[in-house]
Amino acid sequence: MQSKTSYFNRTVFINDCKRYWPLTAGYGLFLLLLLPLERLTTLNHTSEYLSAWNICYKTLEIAAHGGYWIAFFTSILFAMASFSYLTNPRATNGLHALPARRETLYFTHYLSGLCGQLSVQVLAVLLTTAVLTSRGVFDAHLTGLMLLAMILPTLFFYSFGVFCMIFTGQMLAAPVFYFVLNILVVGVELLVRTFAGNFLYGWSGDTTPVLIEFSPVVKLLSEIGVGKDYAYSSNGAGYAQRISGVTLMGIGWLWFYAAVGLVLAALGLLVYRTRHSEATGNIVAVNWARPVFKYGVTFCAALALGQLLYYLFFGQYRYNGDYSLAGTLLCMAAAGLIGYFAAEMLLKKSLRVFRSGWKGAAGVTAALVLLGCCMTFDLTGYEGYVPDAGQIQSARVDFAFHNSGVSFHAELSDAETMRLLTEAHRALALDKARQQRVHRETDEWPIPGTGGGWFDVSYTLKSGRIVTRSYSHITIYAEELGDPASGAATLTAFYNAPIVALQRSVGWDDWASRVTDPRTLTDLRFTGGYVDQEVRDADGNYDHSWELDLSPAEAKAVFDAISRDALAGRVDASLFDNPQSMAGSITLFASYIDTKDPSSGYIHPDADEDGRVTANFCPVVTTRMIDTITTLCSLGIVPEFN
Fold first, then answer.
1. Phi and psi of 396, rounded to 5°?
2. CA angle (237 as vertex; 235, 239 as ends), nearest 5
3. What percentage of the chain exceeds 70 in pLDDT?
């Protein structure tokens, strides 16, 4: 008789299904309540009011978000059920004594847990499709998207749960590893960012993870969603759009993580083949993973618990690179030692670890002290780095000074403005020692002759790299305006750069357009405006107010005059005093064409079907803006200034 290798044992598979049927039944009941029964109940009362598109959209939304969260929480339960024998010495030895290869046992148990979930999901989707069809809404594409939204995350999370089960011999350790490892990389990255913020002056404090792809549950949470499937047609000037269906957002990432799940399943088999049966009962059942666990726990404890201790005892009132080195090292070392010995106790299943573990503890302490010292001396050059103006493609700037009420936000790209911006940034970076000393010694704000506030900048370099810096609690001095290298002089020069002056004088701040100079907007058409002006008596008291409507031509004339004043340097302002502005307000109405390519996924949120966007300008008129004042007077408006 010819022999052959089998990777599946029917008896073991059926035994698994029989033993853990309550888990499968509970999972199935939950899915049936979530999808087909919910849809049936809702459509019985609202189907006549909802369009077919709305019904499909809501159904896919439930399947996408519900399927994702259910897969995340239940996959580890199925993995624990299918491989529970690895946490029981008698069961482990009994199964491993059977005339069955490790590959056969692994694939059989893996498939029993996976099939239990997928069969229920297919049933729920088919019943949901039947409910929609009974209401006259049948969409095979929607059925396929629902299946993918539920099956793909299940494939990853279940494989990841099995992978965790292979590495431990303790039942309760598996869900801990599963949940921690799903968010570990993002969590550690945020802790490292916080740690760096204790030391580095100008640290941006940006909490957007860079390594988010390595934390699947976080990445998928930000990617999965339901969107409108648009059909576009050009009308010659912009674009016209209509809804043609629904689409599953983030489906590319679902396919990617499903593929990663298959890789983890294969790696789990490789580890399972070398795992010793005697390791059952250990917190970490694979020998080479034990030091990874020990020093991983140590590092995370030092970062998390150490920073908590530092904040409680030393850092509550320190900001932006102003820190206590001794306090940081003390807290980090103490927390690291706690984590190190706790991990040793778990691995050795004994409390007597202090004598044997002192060498490793000493190494951990030395490493943490070295890390703190490296940050102290800024060996990476982070604090003093300012990109050259020629390397910058664009920059986003936010700053405010409380004394003068100055508040500015813009995205800039022209070369001259980049030069002025980098000079101001460099002046602040070089002023670190004084800024920290002033912040520690000053209790009352504002101080006459100074400007107190914050300054944030984010550069996008031509190489694609993003550089961000943030300076909080900064102080500039009016008496230093004569020094061209001072923070006061360089910031004032930047604030009065022509493009910056134009943007703040016309009151233009549309984040969605990403256009700094409103004159460059495509087909900019003014539709009108109005002037609302206050009239005061000889003593400066309010007398009355009046309003004047502006025609499209008059609104454009006012805008053009403001632009000429800005580019001629006649709207310069101080960072220390409030500008002398016209009493009342001016509002100009216009519209422009959104020329972004809609096929790229970008659509201006306020664009109409023809791609036109409404723009409002609220200019500020000051005494030196002679062109603007002349234009207003020619329209019969005599500006009054307060």
1. -110, 130
2. 50
3. 83
Question: CA 448, CA 577: separation in Å to the nearest integer?
Answer: 11
How far apart CA 634 and CA 617 sit, in angstroms, is 20
Chain centroid to Cα 217, Å, comes to: 14
- Phi then psi for 581, rounded to 5 degrees? -110, 165
CA distance 343 to 294: 5
Token code pair at residue 476:
């500039």
pTM reported for the whole predicted model: 0.75
Give the three-class secondary structure for 476: strand
Whether 476 contacts 491, CB under 8 Å:
yes
Q: Which residues of 119-138 are buried (b: 16+ CB within 10 A; e: fewer)?
A: ebbeebbebbbebbeebebe
| Residue 154 or 238, more confident | 154
**CB neighbour list of residue 422: distance below 8 Å, 6 or more residues apart:** 386, 387, 388, 389, 392
Q: Of 607, 420, 622, whose CA–CA distance to 522 is shortest?
A: 607
For residue 446, cis peptide bond before it (omega within 30 degrees of 0): yes
Q: What is the pLDDT of residues 569-616, one digit of tens each?
A: 888 777 877 666 666 688 899 888 876 554 444 556 666 666 778 888
DSSP classification of residue 315: I
User: How far is 625 from 566, CA to CA, in rounded Å?
Assistant: 8
| pLDDT tens digits for range 281-302 | 888 888 888 889 988 888 888 8
CA 436 to mean position of chain CA atoms: 30
- CA-to-CA distance for 474 and 434, rounded, in angstroms? 10
Low-confidence winner among 130-144, 248-262, 430-444 (lowest mean pLDDT): 430-444
C-alpha count within 13 angstroms, C-beta hemisphere, residue 408: 32
Q: Report the side by side order of strands in the sheet with 542-550.
A: 542-550, 525-536, 585-593, 612-617
Q: What is the mean pLDDT of residues 358-384?
A: 74
237 touches 610 (CB < 8 A): yes
Residue 214 has pLDDT above 80, yes or no: yes
What's the DSSP call for residue 576? S
